[in-house]
Amino acid sequence: MEFATADLIDEFGTELQSCETQFRSYGARGRFAGPIATVRCLRDNGLVKKLLNTPGGGRVLVVDGGGSLGSALMGDLIAAAAVRNGWAGVVIYGAVRDVAALGTLDLGVKALGSNPRKSAKDAAGEVDVPVAFGGVEFRPGDFLYSDEDGIVTAVRALV
User: What residues contact residue 13 under an 8 Å CB cut-off, 6+ apart?
Assistant: First the structure.
């Protein structure tokens, strides 16, 4: 899929939301897009693991981890499952771990930072609910586009 978020903003302007949060890129796929799926959790990646072990169909998982850097919500094993299951990418408003391994996986991964600490595995949280950060409401089924310039969302597929 060929696109640039700056070009999408120029062409579709008011149809798009642009995320103000400055994420770091960790996956080998620098540019990714797809329909949004969501998880809201805090220092517990049980739902993230569960969802990424299901068929992704080119979707992007947006994880609202409350901006916590206290423990990682995804590492190399969960990310590898996402690749095997056809997910396009994961955006985590929180931390990841196993950064060197994430960089070798054909998956878009954006997160606030990293922490080697494991998270809880209780599957506490919510799935497929609107989540918000960076001035954007990420709604399940909307479309996310991410590249080196940032993240934008739209209610429909643009490319």
Answer: none
